[in-house]
Every structure is written in C-alpha cells, then in structure tokens.
C-alpha cells in the first residue's frame, strides 16, 4: 500500500528549516505532482516569506516566472501579502510627498522605505524616508522615526548624512535627507578589501562618530549596511581614495546620559554581529560611546576578513559568544593582515568597555598612525596576558595544562625560565578560578535574562495577533530563535492552542465548492461545480453519499424542511431529492435558477430575469414574483420565512415580503454584483458580499448600513452564527470574523473561499480548489465555563475534577467533574472568600459568618468544623499532604490547624491593620500573610512565631503565593504592583507595575515556569487584566483584558481558571 504523501504544511516547515539553517532550498524540491493548487501555493509562499524574514529581497516576479502554472493564485497571494505585511497605500514613484517628487525606491526596511526624490522648490536631489503606515505598524516605530529626526537635526559633519527637513504629508511622516549616490559599505565589503582603504574608511567614520558623541548622540547600530559610500565627494577629498563614507540610519540612536526612551533592562537593540557585550546583555539603555567604538571594530574586522566578528543571527550561542568569547584573530582569515591593524581591531572588540579605546577619536588617531607608518598607542596582547585571559575563560583546563607543562619542563635542565613563566600563568589561572567562575555564572545569567527578555517580547505580540491573525501568530510561536523550546511555558501553550484552531481539510469536489449547508443533526450538505451534491454523515471521518445532480455543474443548493435537498444547475433545471434517498430519481422543475435559499418550509429561487420563485408552507405549486429589473444572483430567507432578500448585478439588495412578493425596502449603495446574502439570527440585519471586495451589513428596519472593509477581492460567502458572529470569505484567501459593531475580530488567511457556514462550535469554508476546511471558532472574548449569578470571590478545584466557587453573595456552587449543571448552596451572608479542596479531593473547607471553618464531604454533608476565629475567614489553604490547613480571618490572625484531629496547632500575632490574604509554603513550614499595613509577613507554621517582614508595597498587600519550589514568593498589592521575593537571598524584589487596577490574585503554574497575576475584584464587578509574567525576571509575557481575580491553575498545569464577568473562565493550554 502506498503511504500518503507528506502534508504540505510539514514540507513547508522542512523548507523553512533548511533556509533558516543557511542551506540551499527551493520550493520546487518540495512541491509534489499530486499537490492541489492550494498546497502548491502554500509551499511557494512559504519560501517567499522565509526569504523575506531572513533579510533577503525576494521578488514576486521571480516566483511567478518559476511557477507560471500558478500565476493567478500566486498573484492573489502576493497581493494579500503586500496588503497585510507591507505598507498601506505605499506611495508610487511619481507621487508627491510634501514638496518632494518621488523618483525611484532605493530600499525598504522593517519600518520605512527610502526614495530618491526631487525637491520641486529648487530641483535638489534628496533621499526621502517614509514611515510605513497601516494597521500593522507598531507604535514604537513612530517614536524611533521621530528620534531619528531629532538626532539628525543636531548633527552637521561631512561623514554623516545630513537632514534637510522633517515633516508630515497626507498623514505620513517623512524625513528628507542628503542623497548619497554610491552603494553601502556592505555591498563592497570582502576579504580582499585593501587594508589601507579599510583603515581610511574606519578612520573617517570614527572621526564622524566622535563628533556625534561630542554632540550627545550615540548611534548604537553601526554596521556596513548603515555606512553609505559617496563617489561624488571622494573626488573632492583624497584623490587617491575612492570610498568616502557617510553614516546613516540613526533610528536606534540615543542621547548620551539619557534614559533612552523606549529601552529598558532586557532590551536588545542593534545588530548582534557588531553589538557590544553590554548591549547584547540587554542593557541597551546603558550602551554609550564605548558601544560605538566596539561596533567600529566590528566594521573594521569585516572589512579585513569579509565576515563580522560574530554571527549576526540572534541565537543563544551567538549571544554567549558576544558576551564571553573573543573573536578569531583577523590573521586567521587573512594571513596578510598587518599586525598593527589587527591590534587596533581587537582593541576595539575588547569585552570590557574600559579595555577599548577611550573615545572614537583615539581610534581614529591610531588608524592615522597606522596609515602614516608610525607606532601605535595600542599595544598587542602579550603571551602572559593572552594566557591569563585564556585561563580566565577556561580555568579548569588552564590549571590542568599548566600543571602538566610545569611538571614536564621542571625536570629538564636549563628550563627554569620556562618553568617560571608557566608557573606565572598557572598562578594567574588559579588566582582567577573562583573569580572567573562567578563572572561566567553572571554571564550565563545575563544570557538567560536576555533570552527570557526576547521570549517575553515575542509573546507580548500574541494577545492581539492571535485574535486577529492566528495563522500568522503560529509562525511567531514556532520560531525557535525567539521562542526556544526550553522556555515554552503555559503562556506559550495557551496561545499555541488558541492559534491552532484544530484545522481539518478534506478534498470535497473536483472544482469550486458552491454551497456548504450544515443540518441540525450534524450532517453536512455540499455542492460543487463538478455537478455533484454530497451529504456527509460524519465529515471528515467518513466519505459522503454523492449524486451527480447536474452534469454541467451545480449553480445553487438549499435544504428545505431538513428533508429535501434542492439543487439548481446550468441545465436550467431544479432538482428536489429526499435526504434519505439521495440516489433516487429527483422531482424536476424547469427553471433557469441562479441561487437558492430556504428556511424551514420556505424555499426561494432567483432567476436571471429578475424573478423570484417561492415555495412557501404547504402550497403544492410555487409562486413567481418579479422583484428586480435586473438579473438576480443571490438570495437569503429570513428566520421564520416571512421575508427574503435578493441581490443582483446592479448591487442593490431588495427585501421582499414572502406572502405577496412586495418589495418592502431597497438597500442601495453597493457597486458590483451581489454574490452572497445572509440574515442575522434575529432577522433584523442582512449581510451582503459582492464583487467589489466589500462586505456590508444592512439594518432592515431603517436601511442604514456599515461597510466591512478588509477583503481585497470578491466576497463569495457570508454567514451568521447563532451568537450573531459574522463570517465572510472571498477569493483573497481571507476568512474574516466580525463583531456586532462591525469590528473585525479575526482574520484567517488560508485558501480562496467560495462558501462559508457555521456548524456547532466550528466554521466550515468551501474553497475554489474544491476543498472543505473546518476550523474551531476562535475564542474572541472571555466567556465563563462556570456561570454564576454573582461575581466570584474564591475558587477551588478537586483532584477528581469537581469545581467550587464562592461568590460575593455568600453562596457556594459546586460543579461535577463532567461539567454538568452546578448546585448552589447558601452558606454565608457575606462574601465567601475562603474555599479549598484537600489534595485528595474528598474534603471541602469553607468559611462561615461566625468565623468557623466548615468541612464537607463529597455529598456536601458537614463532617466537622474548626472553631477559633472570631470573624469570618478571608482565606484557607491545605498543605500538600492534606494534613494541615491554614486560615486567615478578618480578626487579624492566621491559624494553623491539624485537619485529622480538628485542632489548633498555632496562632500568629494579630496583624496590626488586618489580614487580607494567606498562603502556605510547599513544604508546610512557612505561612505568608498580607495585610492593610502594606507588609507581607512570614510565620513559622509550627509555632506561629514571626520569621520575616517583607516591606516594599506602598499600599495594602492583597495577594500572596509561594513558588512550587518554595524559593520565591509573589505578592500583589493595592499599589498596582506585583513583587517577586527571593526567599533564599537578601536582594530587593523584582517589581512589576503597569496594572490598571489593584492586584488581587497571583498564582504560579504547577511547574513554576509561569506566574499569573490578575487585577480587578468581585466587590466592584469590574474587569481588570490578566498578566502572565516570567517568574524570575518579572518580564511581562502577555496581558489579557476582561479577566480578573481569582486565579487558580489546574493541578496538571493544563488550564488556568480566572474570574470574568458572569463567572469563571477556563484558559486551556493542553
């Protein structure tokens, strides 16, 4: 038996892996002869996007020439790509931007495009840089653009590109700069570069950079690609020198001594191959003039050797090399490299800023000494220093080699001098061993912090992107460079699940899918231009029952009364077939029908002559009404069948009364043929898709409408879900979801759509290639998995799957493991904040009004109580073994109880201003409480005595949680911060701000790799936000609105329970 071909998506992944690994690969190697059009386009597009992301400039025309048989769909795909990933309405050459006429595009980057332009006022040639606009531009792009303008305005030097003016034209910011007629230094660099030319270029650039430093500007991204070469000015300078450099692109520049707007600890800005260690370590805000000196050394190194000192790809290995390892000596790649020039280069590339040239001017001066044949100020590293540095990097190896060498030479006559020298190196190595161990540990920690920062930065894009473009978001999640597998935590898994959408794809028709109709019993009916009508009893698990209904192709399909399959074809016939006897001869009605629609017993067909044919109720014969003066192309029947809507070539939608064919309303304003119509579940609105690429929703009552922009080509399918969610699909490969207000919620880009329908919790798309694609409907807003009438104050989850929630009205609701209806019990007259299950799941503890802690069994029968508190409990928690329970009360005390004996073990002193939260350490030894005195206190669980007071919150401490290993404690407060305390150390806590409300809940995932935090509270019934944090560094990985406290991770880490309006939501990550 021949195995099935490897899925196109998997082949795309292999293609991308080779390209990202630097290996040659082309889509032709991965496209199979058996691939359909969609699969082939997916593979070709994967190569195009990957090359673009790797910094290449792939041309769509090249791909069209390589795949002429895919020209049509590829042109559409590239148009979609430009619309989504390129600028919105990028200016064309010949267009005027302010006073500048654009002549030709010179280059394009992630943020902007640069054009050669002519100033219409004086004819001067300029380079005009435009910020890319559109909904996908990040806000910080505008900040960097403004910063570049501010920086350039300060500078005036012959080796720096001049700024002529900055402005805004038609809402688009632009910079007009000096036009440089030559290439970039990156375009001419190579291992054969003349060493004197290399020295001269870097000397001029260093002098210009020093000038910028004296004006308070640090570039922070010096590299060959940001150095332009002017052939014109070289003629006015040194006639023997053909390369006159000009530094450009100050987008990452900062003011010396400033806090560097937009950067903070953990930010990595610049290009890794030329980046100083302090910059690569995530301290971009501290990168000063020495960082530019380092980068100049990197430029010189590449001019001499043809490669940068370190791989520019942002991998963990490269980061470690930049932070800790020296670059290979230039003479290894270029034996003829002059020793003095190598010395200059390596001095610039010293790891410690103080080891480099003190200023860029000092670097320029030493380069001038080299060019003049004079001795350098910098000296090469001697053998002893080199040995010591090698020993510092590898102390254990140095000690072993040194001891062996010393023993060998020590027994040889006349080798005392060598023994002395080796002994010195060994002594240095031994002396540095402990210190270097600490330094390397610090470097490793800094590397880890940087990787964590990059990971968090990647994930922060996901809340918006996963909702809007989940398929594109999957690409970000799959990128192992910024989302390495070892860092993938609950946050990553949650968004990965959100973006997967459980896609199912199956070939259905040999030609375009005309209509998709789900039936109440779960069956699916489809028709295609291949003439087949199919009924899928268990799609996609079983083949369909099929009948060749119309040999020339099916034009329309409907299902009447869940009994009759009605189809119309190009043969001017309408066929009625019973679902239960699809293969039986049909009842045939002669009619040239363009579209069909039904609601229960009402069936409507529309014709090319403007007529509508209606089968209504129990009437045996249809009634024909002329409802339009032009050809009709689409119809929809309103719920209940009282009205139907028709659309045609003139773009007008007419709402018709079914009973008598009277047109009650004309909805005018569209252009082009109407392709699809659908009524909302309440019948009050009708959605329209047409040839003009716009979907529109009309209010039937008053004729007002709202346009739904975003499609690029004809909208061929529209459908409402029972919830009112609207789906639209078209030939631009988009499947879009829209909210009630007409706001676009989600955009899937997969296949050219021709039909769409909702089926339970899934949406099914029919495609132009004859496939059916089914997706899980994206979760577009938080919704309760456990609904309650009152806001939830506390939650608990049993090992057997039972779930308990205490609400603000004092009621406790219990749900069974199978998620059946919950049973509510009134247990208090005050908010019920103290609820917990014992680890074995058989015992439930909750607070009462009089201060008692009550135990209940699985049948909710009382099986004991703990008596001692004098006011209602505000929190309870069991130990990991279930033998101990801790409680906190409004009486200001925390108590430790023996569960089996139902007796008190210890009581803490009353907290001065009242207790608000409590937690027990994983080993059961420490109780943590927070209160109104702003402090967090640690208590001995055996004696109740104080252990420590953690100060730092500036308002009430509202939440506490121990990490699973007990080494850290997370706290949340009314000061809108979260603090993470290292309980084994004595340093300050990590502080995370930026919350819009008081932080009432903090929770660690069971594996300790995610810290979930939530603001918002049951007492206010207002949403806060849910933030996922790095539990060690505090980096925010993602922030979700509309959630609030309380929070609780499922025991296996596969779900997080979080408060929402109307109950408790379940965020799944498995």
Automatic annotation (TrEMBL):
Protein name, as recorded: Serine/threonine protein kinase
One Pfam family this sequence matches: Pkinase
Annotated PANTHER family: F-BOX AND WD REPEAT DOMAIN CONTAINING 7 (PTHR19848:SF8), WD40 REPEAT PROTEIN (PTHR19848)
Record flagged with keyword Transferase: yes
Keyword Lipid metabolism: no
Sections of the chain in a coiled coil: none
Keywords: Kinase, Repeat, Serine/threonine-protein kinase, Transferase, WD repeat
CDD domains linked: STKc_PknB_like (cd14014), WD40 (cd00200)
Protein kinase domain boundaries: 100-371
Molecular-function annotations in GO: ATP binding; protein serine/threonine kinase activity
InterPro entries: Kinase-like_dom_sf, Prot_kinase_dom, Quinoprotein_ADH-like_sf, Ser/Thr_kinase_AS, WD40/YVTN_repeat-like_dom_sf, WD40_PAC1, WD40_repeat_CS, WD40_rpt
Repeat positions for WD: 506-536, 667-708, 708-738, 866-907, 908-949, 950-984
């Amino acid at each position: 038996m021949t195995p099935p071909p490897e899925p196109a998506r998997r082949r795309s992944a292999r293609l991308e892996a080779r390209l990202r690994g630097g290996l040659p690969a082309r889509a032709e190697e991965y496209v199979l002869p058996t691939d359909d059009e969609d699969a082939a386009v997916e593979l070709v597009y994967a190569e195009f996007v990957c090359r673009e992301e790797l910094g290449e400039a792939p041309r769509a025309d090249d791909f069209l020439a390589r795949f002429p048989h895919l020209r049509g769909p590829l042109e559409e795909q590239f148009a979609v790509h430009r619309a989504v990933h390129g600028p919105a309405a990028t200016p064309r050459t010949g267009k005027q931007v302010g006073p500048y006429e654009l002549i030709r595009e010179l280059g394009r980057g992630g943020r902007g495009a640069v054009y050669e332009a002519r100033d219409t006022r004086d004819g001067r040639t300029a380079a005009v840089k435009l910020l890319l606009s559109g909904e996908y531009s990040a806000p910080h792009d505008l900040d960097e653009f403004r910063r570049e303008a501010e920086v350039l305005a300060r500078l005036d030097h012959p080796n720096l590109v001049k700024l002529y003016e900055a402005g805004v034209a038609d809402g688009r910011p632009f910079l007009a700069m000096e036009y440089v007629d030559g290439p970039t230094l990156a375009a001419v660099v190579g291992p054969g570069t003349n060493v004197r030319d290399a020295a001269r270029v870097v000397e001029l650039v260093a002098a210009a950079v020093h000038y910028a430093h004296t004006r308070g500007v640090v570039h922070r991204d010096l590299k060959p690609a940001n150095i332009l070469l002017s052939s014109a000015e070289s003629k006015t300078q040194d006639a023997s020198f053909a390369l006159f450099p000009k530094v450009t692109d100050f987008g990452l520049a900062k003011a010396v001594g400033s806090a560097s707007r937009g950067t903070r600890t953990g930010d990595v800005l610049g290009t890794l191959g030329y980046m100083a260690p302090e910059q690569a370590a995530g301290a971009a805000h501290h990168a000063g003039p020495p960082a530019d000196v380092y980068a100049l050394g990197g430029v010189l190194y590449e001019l001499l050797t043809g490669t940068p000192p370190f791989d520019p790809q942002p991998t963990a290995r490269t980061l470690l090399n930049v932070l800790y390892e020296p670059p290979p000596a230039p003479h290894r790649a270029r034996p003829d490299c002059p020793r003095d020039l190598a010395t200059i280069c390596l001095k610039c590339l010293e790891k410690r800023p103080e080891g480099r040239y003190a200023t860029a001017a000092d670097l320029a001066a030493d380069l001038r000494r080299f060019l003049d044949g004079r001795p350098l100020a910098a000296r090469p590293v001697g053998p002893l220093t080199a040995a010591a540095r090698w020993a510092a990097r590898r102390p254990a190896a140095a000690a072993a080699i040194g001891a062996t060498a010393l023993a060998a030479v020590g027994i040889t006559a006349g080798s005392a001098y060598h023994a002395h020298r080796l002994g010195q190196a060994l002594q240095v190595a031994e002396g540095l061993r402990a210190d270097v161990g600490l330094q390397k540990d610090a470097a490793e920690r800094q590397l880890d912090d940087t990787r964590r920062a990059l990971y968090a930065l990647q994930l922060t894009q996901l809340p918006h992107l996963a909702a809007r473009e989940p398929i594109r978001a999957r690409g970000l999640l799959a990128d192992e460079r910024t989302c390495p597998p070892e860092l993938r935590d609950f946050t990553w898994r949650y968004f990965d699940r959100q973006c997967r959408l459980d896609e199912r794809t199956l070939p259905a028709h040999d030609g375009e899918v005309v209509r998709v109709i789900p039936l109440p019993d779960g069956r699916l009916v489809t028709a295609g231009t291949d003439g087949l009508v199919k009924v899928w009893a268990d799609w996609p698990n079983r083949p369909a029952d099929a009948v060749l209904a119309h040999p020339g192709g099916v034009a329309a399909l409907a299902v009447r009364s869940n009994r009759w399959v009605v189809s119309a074809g190009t043969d001017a016939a309408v066929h009625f077939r019973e679902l239960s006897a699809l293969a039986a001869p049909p009842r045939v009605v002669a009619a040239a029908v363009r579209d069909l629609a039904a609601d229960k017993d009402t069936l409507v067909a529309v014709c090319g002559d403007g007529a509508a044919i209606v089968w209504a109720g129990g009437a045996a014969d249809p009634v024909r009404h002329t409802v339009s003066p032009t050809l009709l192309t689409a119809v929809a029947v309103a719920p209940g069948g009282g009205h139907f809507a028709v659309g045609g070539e003139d773009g007008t939608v007419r709402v018709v009364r079914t009973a008598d064919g009277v047109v009650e309303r004309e909805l005018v304003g569209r252009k082009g043929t109407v392709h699809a119509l659908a009524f909302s579940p309440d019948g009050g609105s009708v959605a329209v898709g047409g040839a003009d690429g716009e979907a529109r929703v009309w209010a039937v009552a008053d004729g007002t409408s709202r346009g739904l922009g975003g499609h690029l080509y004809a909208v061929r399918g529209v459908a409402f879900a029972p919830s009112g969610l609207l789906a639209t699909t078209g030939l631009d490969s988009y499947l879009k979801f829209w909210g009630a207000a007409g706001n676009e919620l989600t955009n899937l880009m997969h296949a050219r759509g021709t039909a769409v329908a909702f089926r339970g919790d899934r949406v099914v798309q029919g495609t132009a290639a004859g496939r059916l694609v089914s997706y899980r409907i994206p979760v577009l807003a938080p919704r309760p998995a456990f609904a309650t009438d009152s806001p939830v104050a506390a939650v608990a989850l049993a090992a057997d799957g039972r779930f308990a929630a205490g609400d603000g009205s004092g009621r406790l609701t219990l749900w069974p493991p199978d998620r059946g209806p919950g049973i509510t019990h009134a247990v208090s007259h005050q908010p019920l904040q103290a609820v917990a299950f014992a680890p074995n799941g058989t015992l439930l503890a909750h607070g009462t009004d009089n201060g008692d802690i009550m135990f209940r069994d699985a049948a909710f029968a009382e099986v004991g109580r703990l008596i001692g508190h004098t006011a209602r409990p505000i929190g309870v928690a069991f130990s990991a073994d279930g033998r101990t329970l801790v409680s906190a009360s409004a009486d200001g005390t925390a108590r430790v109880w023996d569960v089996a004996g139902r007796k008190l073990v210890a009581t803490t002193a009353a907290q001065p201003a009242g207790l608000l939260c409590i937690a027990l350490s994983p080993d059961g030894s420490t109780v943590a409480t927070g209160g109104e005195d702003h402090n967090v206190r640690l208590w001995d669980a055996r004696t109740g005595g104080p252990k420590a007071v953690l100060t730092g919150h500036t308002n009430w401490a509202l939440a506490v949680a121990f990490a699973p290993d007990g080494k850290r404690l997370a706290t949340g407060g009314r000061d809108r911060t979260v603090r993470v305390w290292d309980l084994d150390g004595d340093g300050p806590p990590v502080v995370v701000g930026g919350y819009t409300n008081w932080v009432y809940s903090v929770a660690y995932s069971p594996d300790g790799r995610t810290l979930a935090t939530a603001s918002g509270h049951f007492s206010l019934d207002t949403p806060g936000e849910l933030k996922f944090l790095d539990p060690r560094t505090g980096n925010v990985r993602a922030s979700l609105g509309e959630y609030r406290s309380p929070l609780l991770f499922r025991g296996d880490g596969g779900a997080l329970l979080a408060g929402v309006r109307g109950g408790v939501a379940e965020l799944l990550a498995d």
